[in-house]
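fold-stage: in
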Amino acid sequence: MSLVKQTVYVTGLDDDVTEQDVVNHFSNIGPITPVLLLYDEAFSQPIGMAYVVFSDTQYVGKVETDQSGRNLKGKELTAEAVSEDQENELTG
């Protein structure tokens, strides 16, 4: 099974959010394997986006519909299944 199908793309993260913050926030939905915070390469600064990989595809739909999982450290998040374009970018 492709990990991409188990992956949620999260935007709206505060700059001081850590990987552990993301894990803690989304682990109520289901088991998380890795979290990948995205950074600006030139400045090594977080850009407020992350990929969250769940242990199973069933959790991806739960994230998209779970309204209580949309706020972290006072910022409203968006979370959606990885799109086909993002999948192509991730898998090369």
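fold-stage: in (second)
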Amino acid sequence: MTEFPSASPPTVLLVEDDRRLAEMVTALLVEEGYRVEVAGGGQAGLHLGLTRHYGVLIIDRGLPVLEGLDCCGSCDPTESARPRWF
């Protein structure tokens, strides 16, 4: 399990439209001690990213309707230091 310098681990926002893949990634992250919230598409991910704070974003680049890179481009620019994985 990963050790975190603060009392609580960062919350991860996982934006992935493939349910099985989202379940596998979530299981691995939870096993490492992270809290995970999943959005099933770009629009839902953008909404969550703008209304809540996440320590890490993991976004599928090939989402239908609103692609992963477009999600990031629409996120709050004051959060630019937050890690984003594609």
